[in-house]
Amino acid sequence: MLTHEGQRSASIAAGEGTVTADMVAQIAYCPRRFHLAYVEGRWADNAETDGGRFTHRRIDSVDEHLPATGDVTAERRTLRSVALLDEARAVSAKLDAVEVWRDEATGEALAFPVETKRGTVPETAEGPWEPERVQLMVQGLVLRANGFTARSGAVYYAGSSRRVEVPFDDILLNRTLVLIDAARGGLQGRSLPPPLVDSPKCPRCSLVGICLPDETLAAAHNDTPLSETTTPEVRRLFPARDDAFPLYVQEQGAFVGKHGEVLTVSREGQRLAEARLKDVSQLVLCGSIGVSSAAIHLLCESGKPIVHLTRGHWFCGITQGHGLRNGYDRAAQYRTASKSERCLALAREFVRAKATNQRTLLRRNAEPSLDQDLSEMARLIERVDELGSLDELLGIEGSIAARYFGNFGKMLRPKEQATGAASESWGFDFGCRNRRPPRDPVNAMLSFGYALLAKECTVALAAVGLDPFWGFYHQPRHGRPALALDLMEEFRPLVVDSAVITAINTGMVTASDFIRAGNACSLSDNGRKAFIRAYEARLDQLATHPVFDYRCSWRRFIALQAQLLARDLRGDVAGYRGITTR
Predict the structure, then answer these.
(1) Per-residue pLDDT tens for 198-214?
(2) Which of 132, 219, 234, 322 qualifies as a cystine partner to 214, CB 3.0-4.6 A?
(3) What angle do helix axes 21-29 and 130-145 make, rounded to 10 degrees?
(4) Tell me, what's the pLDDT at 3?
(5) For position 166, what pLDDT does the model report?
(6) Closest to 258 in 3D by CA, of 238, 242, 274
(7) Over the stretch 87-141, which tens digit does the pLDDT of each residue have?
(8) pLDDT computed for residue 354 by the predictor
(9) N-term to C-term CA, the chain
(10) pTM check: above 0.90
(11) Helix 371-382 vs helix 340-365: angle between axes, to the nearest 10 degrees?
(12) Omega into 437 within 30° of 0, i.e. cis?
């Protein structure tokens, strides 16, 4: 995989005019990867990049300087981690190692750069791969610009414990100059280059979960069944589940700090919990929780958001760094929002997917006496494409929701108490949907779950560079994450409603987990913890993607839909398609 230098420099602001050696290697490897890393500021690690970082741990521990040519002697010296600039070409490089010495016969100051790679020697006629050769050639150019003669270099493969020499001939030089110009022009690019088709490079790329090469090609034929397209089979090239999970802090008065790369949670001097940064996807603060500036800086620098919920768990804000540099996604989002036809088309898809999933959940879990309501819901869903305004769509959505929630209680079968008391004594009888405040335990869990889902969708949309507060179906309003509410529509029944049903029917949450005050009902501290377990378990559950036909978690589904929505707005795919299950 490509270089450790890219991990350090992908966060450098583009547009400064200087092309790095890693940029040239990246654009030779894949123009789409180059754009994601250096134009949009996107980065992700995998086993390849972690292994490369480990291989370079000794190199990166020191920074040495190249001596002036007049100070070079006949003794061959090795310098490590040397930063150089070719001012005339506006090209820079960070050399892993460079050997310098003086040729006593000619008096030339000679340099021999060595680039370290974690893998093994490729079985190719050219030796190193092209990205590695051009990266080394850039290093040769900056050495020449600093007065040294560089006729060749070498790639050291740690996996083979072997060097492979690369001569700096005219063919490699001309190819490198072309790629330098391509990288310079690519930094100004607004459009994401097309993905590679069925490339063996993709499975090893750390950005494959952001790039979505196979998914993008398949979604370019959204109006055609996948089995009838000419695109290759969609490969799931990223893990089915995330390695990191949200860290919820609910203990009132607790304080979140950090110790190195570990987040710590304490209260009144007593350590309550700790979590490694690599295991945390987001920090969720529920109520009166303090957090140190050092912890905030660590999370922002690593691209992990801090989510703020009230003690009652209303979603009220998010703190995040500004790693993404791509303003064009948001520009496309605002342009789309100004076009009523496009807003209506997206809104139809959000509503259709939500209503279809509501009907499916009801059909799977409720009593068999609902044929009439299920038929009426199907009839209303078929009318969605005929509607000519958002107001009409709201009306249809309300009619479908009335039938859905009118029968929601029939999906609840709470375990009876040991005494044999009827299930109604548990307090889980459900008449209708109500909120602000919810008046019964089921509505309390639904409202809490929807707040958590809005948080999840806000984080997913912000991660791909969209504005969570500017929607297409839900109209913008101060303080309301309208686009997050759009995205969460299709996931309400799939994630939250399913989690509520599971929590009640399995006894994870009981009547003692609620607090009643007047007409209001809310979860107790223990009840919230129990429901969060049910909610997170549902997000972590695997399901088969209805279009791409591979399995991944519901949390991955949300992130995937956010990415595909962004690609639709930029014209990278042919229309947004909501997630539905059978």
Answers:
(1) 888 998 888 888 888 98
(2) 234
(3) 160
(4) 44
(5) 94
(6) 274
(7) 999 999 999 999 999 998 999 999 999 999 988 999 888 889 999 999 999 999 9
(8) 95
(9) 39
(10) no
(11) 160
(12) yes
CA distance 118 to 554: 34
At 194, the amino acid letter reads: P
- 163-185 per-residue burial string, b: 16 or more CB within 10 A, e: under 16: ebebebeeebeebbbebbebbbe
Residue 60 has pLDDT above 80, yes or no: no
Looking at residue 391, its amino acid is D
What domains can be seen in the chain, in order of their start residue?
A: 4-186 (3.90.320.10), 245-319 (3.100.10.20), 328-570 (1.20.120.920)
Task: Give the amino acid at 463.
Answer: A
Stretch 357-372: mean pLDDT: 84
The pLDDT of residue 265 is: 92
In angstroms, what CA-CA distances link 569 with 327, 470, 480, 579?
13, 13, 21, 17
Using alpha carbons only, what angle is made at residue 350 by residues 344 and 353, rounded to the nearest 5 degrees? Answer: 135
Reported confidence tier of residue 479, pLDDT bands at 50, 70, 90 = low
Long-range contacts of 278-283 (CB under 8 A, 24+ apart): 278/243, 278/244, 279/243, 279/244, 279/245, 280/244, 280/245, 280/246, 280/247, 280/304, 281/242, 281/244, 281/245, 281/246, 282/246, 282/247, 282/306, 282/307, 282/459, 283/246, 283/247, 283/249, 283/256, 283/307
Please tell me whether residue 75 adopts helix, strand or coil conformation: coil
